[in-house]
Structure prediction request, 423 residues.
Amino acid sequence: MPALRPLTPPRKAPTTLRRATTNDQIATIDRRGSNAAGLLRSMLSGPIARSTLARRTGLSAAAVTRLVQDLTVRRLVRELPVRSPQPGLGRPHQPVDLDDRYWMAAGLHIAVPCSTVALTDLRGRVLAKEVLPHEDAPPAVVLARAADRLSTLLRAHDDRGLLGVGLAGGGRVDHLSGDIVTHNLLGWRDVPAGRIVAERLDAPVLVANHAHALARAELLFGAVRDRARRSAVTLFVGNMIDAALSTAGVVHHGPGSTAGEIAHLPLGDPGDRCVCGRWGCLQASVSDRAMGERAAAVGITSVASYDGLVAAARRGDERAVDLFRERLRRVGRAASVLLDVVNPDVLAVVEGGLNLVPSIAPLLMAELRAEVSATSQVCTAPDEVVVAGSFGADVLAVAGVATVLDSVFTRPLDLPARTAASA
Prediction:
């Protein structure tokens, strides 16, 4: 793997910015970086002509050419073969596109029963992925195992440059310190997850709550990203229940990175006891763990097993499908609360039935939207506003790398210039 400097957390200004000596110089550098980021994001949809980039961004043709060159030497952009115009239609256009052949991002997602380690390309497409059971190991062991396995994946893909390492998980995650502050289901408290993984891999690690990370991924690669960039809510339903809010393309963290803690809204079954000690919390009724317990209670599985429930739903077991439908109705009530409070352009729901059982996803989405229609006071078009998350079975892998890719598309000129000869 080329010896490249990965992106670092946004605690230090780039070297070029530190050399600026006046406010005008700093503003120029900031503007140049912002313009480069805008061009890079414009290529997410595929090849595009420079003239179209100029029109979309409002930059001059000369400025677009200079910035494309800056991005090209960083191996982020490449020129494609010239399109031959029809006779008499002027000069041919040479489109440019993201160069997804060179870079990769590494990520780690911490779930309750397991960790997911993955590598993706610049577009967030998974190159490699592995799932590692926790086996009731303590936090340091779980993180060390995952980091070691990620290191093995990196060595197997050493033909690519490493952009950086991301880490995401549920519960209260401080994106500044890199600590998992509280994770009630794992019993983790004040775990310096970012530091443990960074020391193991000898690379900087960007850490985030998984709903916050997925909100960033939706803004970059999501199916409705153009609308999401105005305002969006991402609702994560797994063993942990979390939400994230973004406006104008910026994810809101709140003090202590606590924004989006909705697990204990009193929207669950009053007879369900929550790990917090109260009854009727949302998470107590709709979490993967609760779903596995219900599957065992009605005889779908012999023991409490969410994976067994998913397998039964894939086989067409109506009892399993009904459990998912019940969950989506209750999730719909939580979605209505978020819609009424925030009134976003898009609300993306990340949920196992929608992600893992494609055969019933349309039925579940219809159930979800019907509940929103019945309970929301402000959402008059749930078919347009309420959508499934964009990443299917790869959602946890994408969550792990999202913070790294977001850094690239926000500050692309922080990367060192590379040439084909030096790569």
Notes: Residues 1-21, 419-423 have pLDDT under 50 and may be disordered. Residues 103-213+398-409 form a domain with the Nucleotidyltransferase; domain 5 fold (CATH 3.30.420.40).
